[in-house]
Amino acid sequence: MANDNQNQVLDENTDVLDGDKTAVKRVRKAKPKAAEGGSTASLFGIEPYQPKKNEEYMSDGQLEHFRKILQAWKAELMSEVDRTLNTMQDESTALPDVNDRATQEEEFAIELRTRDRERKLIRKIEQSLEDIKSGDYGYCETCGIEIGLRRLEARPTATQCIDCKTLAEIKEKQNNG
After folding, report:
1. Residue range of the domain that includes 165
2. How many domains does the chain have?
3. pLDDT at residue 16 greater than cutoff 90
4. Would you say 128 and 38 are in contact if contact means Cβ atoms under 8 Å apart?
5. Assigned domain for 47 exists
6. 161 contact partners, CB below 8 Å, separation of at least 6
């Protein structure tokens, strides 16, 4: 059954492996059908924003759209924090086997590192929500131009336009490389 799903779209090419007469079909993933705006992704169940004709950049509708995305993202991260806390409390029993204890400690350490990264992301989300309130959201903090709706859809916490971010990454690579 799963194999049927994988072979929905096939190339007409076949390969012969090491003289074996077994033919292998190359599988090409089916492309999702694009919605009218050219985007198919929905973030947290929120469809991508479709700007209206002659709509001003960062209008009230756009700001509300990104506020919803940011709040949903933050809520999801906070629920992960709660889940981790509950898991660690439930599984914090002293295991008699040293190897089992070591494995558990390593799993906890990985989980805590992940939560630390998410804690930093929550701060960025909160900063983006503050920027929405102050009217600075959607504009590059370096040069002041519009970041762009599609970039913000991909990364709602973006604070730089693509040109400034690319330049900053090149500089960082030169300094650290």
Report:
1. 2-30+56-172
2. 1
3. no
4. no
5. no
6. 140, 142, 143, 145, 146, 147, 148, 151
pLDDT for 133 beyond 80: yes
Cα 57 from chain centroid (whole Å): 24
Question: For residues 129 and 142, is the Cβ–Cβ distance under 8 A?
Answer: no
Residue stretches of the annotated binding site for Zn(2+): 140, 143, 161, 164
Residues in contact with 79: Cβ distance below 8 Å, sequence separation at least 6, in sequence order = none
Asked if residue 66 lies in contact with residue 125, where contact means CB atoms within 8 angstroms, the answer is no
Tally of residues, the chain: 177
Please give the pLDDT value at position 44. Answer: 75
Write out pLDDT tens, residues 46-81.
888 888 999 999 999 999 999 999 999 999 999 998
- Whether 177 is in a domain gets the answer no
For residue 22, tell me if it sits in a domain.
yes
- Name the β-bridge partners of 25: 14
3-state secondary structure 67-99: HHHHHHHHHHHHHHHHHHHHHHHHCCCCCCCHH
Is 112 within a domain?
yes
Interatomic CA distance for residues 152 and 72, integer angstroms: 15
Position 34, amino acid = A
| Cα 21 from chain centre | 43
CATH for 16:
1.20.120.910
Annotated binding site: 140, 143, 161, 164
